[in-house]
């Protein structure tokens, strides 16, 4: 029988920028073990059934399918979340949105809204860190809302709720102290849409018109009707969109507008306060 090390050594993922890490995650899943187990016991033999599953998963990865979709899960913040092909895969850059949101309000009772919640990643991270907050996550895709609810139930976070809503369409009369969103912001002509993992992710969660700002414009336009005076709107956007987003916020009457940089040094989120 093959060993852990021999399977990892022979794993062929020529187009993956993280081939060894991908192979370790896939083999660990096939074995029902952690990646640290692989490194501790490289000489352990692998059963034919586990080796076959590993080979099948490697084949999927060679076709470009993201590891998160193959495994059905992805880590985000301090949480492990179920993911599925009808939702965007949570990314480390979005943790900046969570980190910033946690600094905008005290850890006292507040209503917080996550627009376009997808897996529920942002809403659940905020709910986990702030038990006194009531966090609502909405998405126009029913399957995404169902997935976010499954994540909520598994994590046991009773201060989060999820609902189907096209941005604010199902939230008439509701107001919040903080609104956050990681909306679609990629221009329709961006060549990266044909490359890498994003080929497998839902285009509706990625693309927002010719300049990538259609959904951000819609959110900024509608937010004042759902944000308490003095409340904050936080938006994730593309690495080169910060100036345009700040201008949109200012034009809609938001004050104290600014942008924050991610670990790569890019202005990744912008925010403003409603007077």
Automatic annotation (TrEMBL):
Presence of keyword S-adenosyl-L-methionine: yes
Keywords carried by this UniProt record: Methyltransferase, S-adenosyl-L-methionine, Transferase
E.C. code: 2.1.1.297
Pfam families with a match to the protein in the record: MTS, PrmC_N
Chain sites annotated for binding substrate: 182-185
Binding site for S-adenosyl-L-methionine: 116-120, 139, 167, 182
Molecular function terms, GO-annotated: nucleic acid binding; peptide chain release factor N(5)-glutamine methyltransferase activity
InterPro entries noted in UniProt: DNA_methylase_N6_adenine_CS (IPR002052), HemK-like (IPR004556), N5-glutamine_MTase (IPR050320), PrmC_N (IPR040758), RF_methyltr_PrmC (IPR019874), SAM-dependent_MTases_sf (IPR029063), Small_mtfrase_dom (IPR007848)
Coiled coil: none
Domain Methyltransferase small: 94-185
Reactions accelerated catalytically: L-glutaminyl-[peptide chain release factor] + S-adenosyl-L-methionine = N(5)-methyl-L-glutaminyl-[peptide chain release factor] + S-adenosyl-L-homocysteine + H(+)
GO biological process: methylation
Domain Release factor glutamine methyltransferase N-terminal: 13-72
Family: Belongs to the protein N5-glutamine methyltransferase family. PrmC subfamily.
Function: Methylates the class 1 translation termination release factors RF1/PrfA and RF2/PrfB on the glutamine residue of the universally conserved GGQ motif.
Protein name as it appears in the record: Release factor glutamine methyltransferase
Gene name for this UniProt entry: prmC
């Amino acid at each position: 029988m093959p060993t852990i090390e021999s399977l990892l050594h022979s794993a062929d993922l020529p187009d993956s920028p993280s081939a060894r890490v991908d192979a370790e995650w896939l083999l660990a899943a096939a074995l029902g073990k952690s990646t640290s187990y692989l490194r501790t016991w490289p000489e352990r033999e692998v059963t034919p059934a586990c080796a076959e599953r590993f080979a099948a998963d490697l084949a999927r990865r060679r076709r470009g399918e993201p590891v998160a979709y193959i495994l059905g899960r992805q880590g985000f913040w301090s949480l492990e979340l179920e993911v599925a092909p009808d939702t965007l895969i949570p990314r480390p850059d979005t943790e900046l949105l969570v980190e910033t949101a946690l600094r905008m309000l005290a850890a006292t009772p507040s209503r917080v809204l996550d627009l376009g919640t997808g897996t529920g990643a942002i809403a659940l991270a905020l709910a986990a860190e702030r038990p006194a907050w009531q966090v609502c996550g909405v998405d126009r895709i029913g399957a995404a809302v169902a997935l976010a609810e499954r994540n909520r139930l598994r994590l046991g976070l009773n201060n989060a709720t999820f609902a189907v809503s096209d941005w604010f369409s199902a939230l008439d009369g509701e107001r919040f102290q903080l609104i956050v969103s990681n909306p679609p912001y990629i221009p329709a002509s961006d060549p990266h849409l044909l490359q890498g993992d994003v080929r497998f992710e839902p285009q509706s969660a990625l693309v927002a018109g010719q300049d990538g700002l259609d959904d951000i414009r819609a959110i900024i336009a509608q937010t004042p009707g759902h944000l308490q005076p003095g409340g904050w709107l936080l938006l994730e956007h593309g690495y080169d969109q910060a100036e345009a987003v700040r201008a949109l916020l200012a034009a809609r009457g938001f004050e104290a507008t600014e942008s924050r940089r991610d670990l790569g040094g890019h202005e990744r989120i912008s925010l403003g306060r409603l007077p």
